Amino acid sequence: MAEEKIEEEKKSGKNPMMVILIVLVVILLLAIGGIVYFLNEKGIFSDKPINSTSVQTTEKKVNIEKEEVGETFQAKIDSLVLNITDVKGRAKLMKLSFTMKSNEPTIEALVEANKAEMVDSVIRQVSARTSEELLTVGGKAMLKEEMIDEANNILNDATDGNEDIKKNMILDIFFTSFVIK
Question: CATH number, domain at 158?
C-alpha cells in the first residue's frame, strides 16, 4: 500500500527541478528584455541625447544663428559619382548631391564660377575615407564640416578683393542624395 502511494506520487507529481528551470528561464528572458529596452531607450543604440541641457543649448544656438543670418540663399551641386573603397580595399561607387546654404545673395553664381575647385575638394575629402566611415552618422557629420570649411576657403580666396561679398558665406550643407553601392 505504501509502495502504491509512492508510485502514484511519482506519476502525478511534477519534477521540482523542471519547475525551477522554467522559472529561471522566464526570469532570464525578462532580464534580457529589460536590458535591450534600456539600451534602445537610453543607451548606446538611442538617437536621443543623454542629457537634455545639450538639446536646449543647441536649440538656442540655432535660434540665435537664424536671427543673425536673416535671409538665406542656396546653391546646389548635383549628382557627383565618386569612387571610394571599403575597409577591405574593394572599390565602391558613391552618388552624392548636396545643397549649400548661404547668407550671400550671389552664392549660385560664385559656386558655378568655382565649381571645378569645389568638386575637386569634395572628391579629395570623400576619397580619404572608407565607405564604412561615410555610412556612420559621425562620418557624415565630419565630412559635412570639412566640406563647409573647404567651400568657405575656396570662395573666400575667389572673392578676396571684393569687399561687398561676405567671408565664410557657407553656413551649412545639406546632403540631398547620399548613396553608396
Answer: 3.30.479
The CA angle 26-31-33, to the nearest 5 degrees, is 95
- Please write the tens of the pLDDT for every residue from 103-155: 988 899 999 999 999 999 999 999 888 889 988 999 999 999 999 999 999 99
Count the alpha carbons within 13 Å of 165 in the hemisphere toward its beta carbon: 19
| The C-alpha cell that represents 111 in the structure block | 559656386
Cα–Cα distance for residue pair 167/80, rounded to 1 Å: 26
For residue 82, the enclosing domain spans 72-180
Whether residues 162 and 82 fall in one domain:
yes
Distance of CA 56 to the CA centre of its chain: 20
Cβ 121 vs Cβ 151: under 8 Å: yes
